[in-house]
Design a protein that fits this description.
mainly alpha, two-stranded antiparallel sheet, 4% strand, transmembrane helix
C-alpha cells in the first residue's frame, strides 16, 4: 500500500524529490536514489571480506603454526577474532558516515590490508612491541592526520604530486585491482619460476566458476544492464552454492563456509562477541614505557603508507567518477581526507589498525555512485553485518572479486590522459603504473613516480620547472624506502 502521493512521486522520479536527493545533491551529480543504492551494495559486496580478513590477520594464534597479533588473557583466539570483527565494522562505519554526511563522496573505508599485516607481523611480531603500543601508534597517526587535514597540509602535499603521477594513478590502481581479483579467482596463481602463472582453470572449481562469472558479468555490463556487477557477483555465489548442494565439490570449496552438502550448517554461523571492552581504550596502556625512537619509526611508517595509499585511491577513483579538475586535483579533498583521519583515530581507540579509503570503492563508482548516499548505504550494510558477523563473508571471495577485474579493465582507459610523447610525463607515469601492481602497493607506485619526476626533469635541463616541494617529497620517499627496506624496523626494539 502506498504511503501517499509524496511517496509515489519519490518512486516514479527516482527519488529526486526525496530528502536524500536534496541533501546529497542527486540532480547536481546526475544520479538518482536507485543508482546510489545499487552502487553502495556493489561496493559493500566487494569490500565486506575485510570483516573476516582483518580479524584473521590481527589475532594471535598460538601453536606450531601460530602467528603474532593481538592476544587477550582469558579469551580464546576465536573470541578475540569476534571482538575484532565488531571493532572492524564499527571503525569502518564511523569513517564511512563521515564520508557520507561531511564529504558527500561515494568512497568506502575500513581498516586497510597491508597496514594490518604490518601491525601484526612487523610491529608486534618482529619488533616485539606490545599490541597496546601498536594501537597507541595508530591513534597518534590519526590525531596527526586530523591536525594536518584541518590546517590544509595534506591537501597541499597531495596537490604537489606531479601531473603525470596523478593521471597515472588510475591505470596503476586498475592493474593492481586486476592482480588482486585474478588471484582470488585462482585464474592467476603463484609460480616458483615465473612468480605468477595461469591457474588450473579447467580443473579447479573456483577457477571455473570465476571464469564463467567474469564473462557473465562483462556481458551484462556491455549490454548496459544497471547493476550488472552486483548481479554477476550474486549469480556466481549462487552457482557456487548450487555446486556444493549438488555434491559436485567439497563443502567450503565453492560456497560460503556454512553452506554444507544438502543445506545450511547453522552451527558455523557463530554469534559475534559483542563485548569489546578488552580492546576499547587499550591504546592508553600502550603509551607506558614507550621507546621514543622505535615508536617514532612505527608512527612514521603507518603515516607514510596510509597518507599515500589514501591519496592514490582518492585520486584514482575520482578519475573514474570525473571528479578531478583540469590539473588532476580533487576539489575539497580535505573532506574525504578528514573522514580517513577520524576513522583511523576512532579505529585505534576501538582496537584495530589504520583505517583507509578502499580501492573497491571504484566498483560502486563504476555502477554510477556519485554522492555520499553510496557511502551511506555501504556504512548501513556494515552495521547490518553486526547482527550475524559471519554473514558478511557469505559472498565467496572469488565471486566478489569479479568486480575488481571488471573495474580494472575499465580503468585502463585512464592511460589516455597521460602525455606519452613527453618523456618527463611518460617516465614517471610509467614508473607509477608498473611499480604499483608489481609491489602490491599503491604508495610504492606513487613513490616511484614522485622520485623519478624531478630526476627526469633535471636530466632534460628543466629543473627550474620542478617545485621545491616536489624535490622534498622525492627526498622524503627515499628516506622512507631506506627505513622500510633496510630492516631497521626489526632491530630498533
Amino acid at each position: 500500500m502506498s504511503d501517499g502521493p509524496a511517496a509515489d512521486d519519490a518512486v516514479t522520479d527516482g527519488g529526486q524529490n526525496s530528502w536524500f536527493a536534496n541533501y546529497f545533491g542527486f540532480a547536481e551529480h546526475g544520479t538518482d536514489l536507485r543508482t546510489e543504492i545499487v552502487a553502495g551494495i556493489t561496493t559493500f559486496l566487494t569490500m565486506s571480506y575485510i570483516v573476516v580478513v582483518n580479524p584473521a590477520i590481527m589475532t594471535q594464534f598460538p601453536g606450531p603454526d601460530g602467528k603474532p597479533g593481538i592476544a587477550i588473557e582469558g579469551y580464546t583466539p576465536g573470541e578475540v577474532q569476534q571482538m575484532l570483527a565488531v571493532v572492524t565494522i564499527l571503525a569502518a562505519a564511523t569513517a564511512i558516515f563521515v564520508m557520507a554526511f561531511y564529504a558527500n563522496r561515494p568512497f568506502g573505508q575500513a581498516p586497510g590490508l597491508g597496514l594490518n599485516a604490518f601491525f601484526a607481523f612487523t610491529v608486534v611480531g618482529a619488533m616485539g612491541i606490545p599490541w597496546q603500543t601498536a594501537l597507541a601508534a595508530v591513534v597518534t597517526e590519526g590525531v596527526l592526520f586530523i591536525v594536518l587535514t584541518a590546517v590544509g597540509a595534506r591537501k597541499y602535499i597531495i596537490e604537489l604530486f606531479p601531473e603525470p603521477v596523478k593521471f597515472a594513478v588510475g591505470t596503476g590502481i586498475g592493474l593492481f585491482l586486476a592482480i588482486i581479483g585474478l588471484e582470488a579467482m585462482r585464474i592467476v596463481v603463484d609460480d616458483p619460476t615465473t612468480l605468477v602463472t595461469l591457474g588450473p582453470i579447467a580443473t579447479d572449481p573456483v577457477a571455473i566458476l570465476s571464469v564463467v562469472g567474469l564473462f557473465l558479468t562483462l556481458m551484462l555490463y556491455v549490454r548496459g544492464l544497471k547493476g550488472a556487477i552486483v548481479i554477476g557477483i550474486l549469480a556466481t555465489a549462487v552457482m557456487g552454492a548450487v555446486a556444493t548442494f549438488a555434491g559436485l565439490v567439497e563443502p567450503g570449496v565453492a560456497a560460503a563456509e556454512f553452506v554444507r552438502n544438502g543445506g545450511l550448517d547453522m552451527s558455523r554461523m557463530t554469534a559475534a562477541q559483542y563485548d569489546i571492552t578488552p580492546l576499547f581504550g587499550a591504546f592508553l596502556d600502550g603509551f607506558a614505557n614507550v621507546d621514543a625512537f622505535a615508536f617514532s619509526l612505527i608512527v612514521f611508517t603507518f603515516f607514510f603508507v596510509d597518507f599515500f595509499d589514501t591519496a592514490g585511491t582518492l585520486t584514482g577513483v575520482s578519475q573514474i567518477a570525473g571528479f578531478l579538475d583540469e590539473k588532476g586535483n580533487l576539489p575539497e579533498i580535505e573532506k574525504p581526507l578528514m573522514a580517513d583521519a577520524i576513522g583511523t583515530t576512532v579505529g585505534g581507540i576501538l582496537g584495530t589498525s589504520t583505517v583507509t579509503t578502499y580501492i573497491e570503492s571504484s566498483t560502486g563508482v563504476e555502477e554510477g555512485g556519485r554522492t555520499g548516499m553510496t557511502a551511506l548505504v555501504v556504512g548501513l550494510l556494515f552495521l547490518a553485518a553486526l547482527i550475524v558477523v559471519p554473514l558478511a563473508a557469505a559472498i565467496p571471495l572469488y565471486a566478489s572479486h569479479i568486480a575488481l577485474v571488471v573495474v580494472a579493465l575499465l580503468m585502463l582507459q585512464n592511460v589516455t590522459d597521460i602525455q606519452w610523447d613527453d618523456l618527463s610525463h611518460a617516465v614517471p607515469a610509467g614508473m607509477t603504473i608498473l611499480i604499483m601492481p608489481l609491489t602490491y602497493s599503491i604508495s610504492y607506485g606513487i613513490a616511484a613516480g614522485i622520485i623519478s619526476y624531478p630526476l627526469v626533469k633535471a636530466a632534460q635541463g628543466e629543473w627550474r620547472d620542478v617545485h621545491v616541494g616536489q624535490w622534498l617529497l622525492a627526498v622524503a620517499f627515499v628516506v622512507y624506502f631506506a627505513v622500510r627496506t633496510s630492516g631497521v624496523l626489526t632491530t630498533v626494539a
